[in-house]
Amino acid sequence: MKQGWQIYKLEDICTIYDKLRKPISKKDRVSGIYPYYGASCVQDYVNDYLFDGRYVLIGEDGAKWGSGEDTAYIVEGKFWVNNHAHIIQCNNGIVDTFIYYYFNHLDLTKLVAGAIIPKLTQETLRSMEIPIPPLSEQQRIVSLLDAEFAKIDALKANAEKNLQNAKDLFQAALKKELEPKEGWITKRLNDIYDVRDGTHDSPKYHLEGYPLVTSKNLRNGMVEMDNVKYISKEDYDKINERSKVDIGDVLFAMIGTIGNPSLVTEEPHYAIKNMALFKVPKNQSGALLRYVLSSDGVLNEMHKKAKGSNQPFVSLGYLRNFVITIPESIEEQNELVARLDALNEKCKTLQANYEKTLSLCDDLKQALLRKAFNGEI
User: Fold this and answer.
1) How many CB atoms lie within 10 A of CB 20?
2) Number of other CB atoms surrounding residue 58 within 10 Å
3) CB 53 within 8 A of CB 76
4) What CATH fold (topology level) applies to the domain 6-133?
5) What does the alpha-carbon distance between residue 291 and residue 278 come to, in Å, rounded to a whole number?
6) If DSSP codes are grouped into helix, strand and coil, which group holds residue 361?
7) Cβ–Cβ under 8 Å, residues 291 and 174
8) Model confidence over 52-76: pLDDT tens digits?
9) How many C-beta neighbours within 10 Å does residue 329 have?
């Protein structure tokens, strides 16, 4: 530790105000102008406040505690706090932003207790040992980190904007490529494909057995097999009697999340739940159907017509009757897919570059914080 720094327990340099917290159930909240804070952010706005001042909130439960995951955040003004965040105020001689930065560079996961509901307990928080430099050094470090983080945030904002532009670029190209042309046909989906759906029941799950794929497994146009649940062979066979998936078919989330069309490219040894299944005939391109169903125009229209407020959905009947326009011949469909694949790869390369920049920005912040609290800046 750098000369002049001293180790203090948090309870010796900060006052903890957890006893003043008061949760309000959603049904009992009266809408107002005062922020109602939870573990990591504003949860709502209410008509009264508990605190008036500047404090540091630290997630107690329902938060993220990894390094760089914003476990702590500063709030200022009049506000309310529920019982999912510790609330502390720094004593004289301690800069609260220094404490904020310190907590957000730590990996607190090893200090979190509880298997069912992980929690950073107040007892653990109180006894945490924190290296503290003299006040002038705290102020210097905070000033330096503020300036460097502002530069990184500007770079990050630019990368995020460029990432969105890359996504918009492909959607714009997709829209243009899917504009109806001579020789194209306009038909209901069920007139071109055999449109079915998976089970909507909840079969009994087992530690081993046959995978049951849900909409959570549809990502990036593919079927991802992580975090699947397993069912018996009897339930697997029963579901597949009406909705057996084959290579070349397209899966589409229809409940909760609407969209994420995914092309089946590998032998599907699984059953499906809460999703539509488009059985694609030999004279049609499943890859083209996936592109059509992923276009903003189609998805926006489906979201407008979705039913259900808490869990929006589109019905099987609606999907069967949904009208699309595509090339009639398989040859023209394949040519169109080839152009879209090429455009998609270029846009994905751009997106990957910007995503790498975003990751580097986060890494740079953590590197600066490590140096700061090792007394190296």
Assistant:
1) 10
2) 27
3) yes
4) Adenine-n6-DNA-methyltransferase TaqI; Chain A, domain 2 (3.90.220)
5) 13
6) helix
7) yes
8) 999 999 999 989 999 989 999 999 9
9) 12
Angle between helices 96-105 and 135-177 (to 10 degrees): 60
- The pTM for the full model equals 0.76
Using CA atoms, how far apart are residues 319 and 307, in angstroms rounded to an integer? 13
What is 208-276 written as a DSSP string?
SSEEEE-GGGEETTEE--TT-EEE-HHHHHHHHHHH---TT-EEEE-BSS-EEEEE--S---SEEBSEE
C-alpha 344/C-alpha 307 separation (Å) is: 31
Backbone torsions φ then ψ of 326, nearest 5 degrees: -140, 165
Contact present, 223 and 241 (Cβ < 8 Å): no
pLDDT digits (tens, 9 = 90+) for 318-372: 999 999 999 999 999 999 999 999 999 999 999 999 999 999 999 999 999 999 9
In this structure, the number of other CB atoms found within 10 A of the CB of residue 163 comes to 18
Assign domain 184-327 to a CATH class.
Answer: alpha beta
C-alpha distances (whole Å) from 38 to each of 20, 34, 44, 53, 326 are 14, 13, 9, 17, 49
